[in-house]
Every structure is written in structure tokens, then in C-alpha cells.
Amino acid sequence: MGRYSLGERSFSIGNALLLTVFAFLCVYPFWYILILSLNEGRDASLGGIYWWPRLYTLDNYRVMLSDNTILNAFWVTVKRTVIGTFGSLLITSLVAFALSRRELPGRQPLLFVFLFVMLFSGGLIPYYIQLMHLGLINNFWVYVLPSLFSIWNMFVMKTSFQNNIPESVVESVKLDGGGYLRIYIHIVLPFSMPLFAALGLFTAVGQWNDWFTGAFFVNDIQLQPLPTYLQRMLSTIEASQMISSSQMTTMNQTRLYNPDAITPKSVRMATIMITVLPILVVYPFVQRFFVKGVLIGSVKE
């Protein structure tokens, strides 16, 4: 520290304090939701809970996890996220690899078409009509098929493939008799794993948090994902309507929970935590790919 001037030390301390406050403002809302979900609902409605649960209970999670509709919505979300993420990475990367090859016929017109479509869309009504003619309304595949190709991710991948895949390696594979599929599998994929990890996480988060598709294109509640179900709960004046009275009676008879310990708000807090938790668990495992994956291809040496 002796080699730093007073101004530099002051700036470092101020910067650390500012980032600490910013981190606290980002983390505390999640912590507040967590402690409310672990506290008795009637007691939480009295206020005064800020840091720790006052009357600890898991009844909010018992109520939520005993609702078959919520469990079904959770598995719909898991399926669409897994299938949609892997499918999108595969289709988008194949298109990006093809467009990264300068020998592709019609490459420039195709790039212009993709750029134009990315900037200008037909709007919601034509999109709905198209989905209806394709038979995707009230269909699970409405979550997957329209999102299999991302133009933005394609441009990012194309730039990465052009700048980071050595042409000499590609030519050596061609001399050995390998085709483009072999180049993609044995050259492109190993070189681009950080990029795939970063874009894969962005795609997965988008799939997991998407409530719009389920709310506007799916009427069958058995096909609606968890974010759509949560959005309905948060927009309903009495969220208790989302928990069937027959289910509540059965749970009371079997003494799975204390009915005085829960409120619609406390159940909503538990549902929010279940919705957010999977992404929070996955994020640390791919965080190390973020900087390298996002910046890869941005600079050509």
C-alpha cells in the first residue's frame, strides 16, 4: 500500500464501499423473500421482520409443493428450459458455422436478411396467427420451436468462429478428407465451449423466466410454466384462489400444515424462491465462463 498515493487509496476504499452497498441492494431483496417464505404468514403480516424469521416454519413450502398444479408447472418449466436451451445452441451454432464460411453461396444476402429480421418484426398479431396455423397454440412445443434460432446469438457465434477458429486447422481437416460436419464436431465445439456456456446460460435464464408465452399462447393450465403460474398468483387479488379449497381441506385433515401459519402472501414468497433457486444454483458453475465467453471473438489478433 505504500507505493499508492493518498488519492489512489481513497479511490479504492470509496470504490469498495460503493460496490459493497450496490451488492447489498442486489442481494437483500432475495434474502427478504427467503425469510418471509420461512416465517409464519400471520406473524409476517404484522411486520417487523427484516433479517431473520421470527416464527420459523416450512408450512409455506409444504402448501406450495403439495399443489399438483405448481409441481406440474415446475416440470413444464424444466423440460422447456432443457430442450429449448440445447436445441437453440445446436441450431444457432450450425447456422453460425455455415455463415462463418466465406465459401458459402449467398452468404452476404443471407446475413442482410437475418439482420433485417432482427431489427424489424411483424408484430404480435401476425406472430399469433402464424403460431395458430402451425398448430402451436396450446401446445408444449410453442415454448421450444420458435426459440430454436436466435439471430443475436448467431451473430455472436459467427464472429467467434471467424476470429478464433484457426483456418490452418480447418484446412488440415479438409486435407485429411473431413467434411464440414467433422470440422464442426471436432474443431468448432472444443474451441467454443466458453462461448457455448455463456450463451447457454443466457438462453436458459430466458427460457426459465419466460411467462409471456404461457400467458398469451397457452390456455391449458396443465401446459403453463411456473413463471406464468407465479405471474397469475401475483396479479390475482386473492392468491388463495390459486390453491384449491379441496386441497386445503385435505391438508388440514391430514395435519400437513398449520392453517394459522400461512397466508396467500407467504405462499407466494415460497413460490418465488422455488422459481429463482434453480438459476441461483446453476450460475456459480458457469460464472467462470462469463468473461471469456462474452468477450471471445470481440478482438481479432
Automatic annotation (TrEMBL):
Pfam families cross-referenced by the UniProt entry: BPD_transp_1
SUPFAM superfamilies, per the entry: MetI-like (SSF161098)
Gene3D superfamilies noted in UniProt: MetI-like (1.10.3720.10)
Annotated ABC transmembrane type-1 domain residues: 74-286
Annotated keywords: Cell membrane, Membrane, Transmembrane, Transmembrane helix, Transport
Cellular location(s): Cell membrane
Main localization, broad class: membrane
Residues in the signal sequence: none
Topology versus the membrane: Multi-pass membrane protein
Annotated TM spans: 12-34, 81-99, 111-129, 141-161, 181-202, 267-286
InterPro entries the UniProt entry points to: MetI-like, MetI-like_sf
Family statement: Belongs to the binding-protein-dependent transport system permease family.
Name of this protein: Carbohydrate ABC transporter permease
Source organism (scientific name): Paenibacillus artemisiicola
Lineage: Bacteria, Bacillati, Bacillota, Bacilli, Bacillales
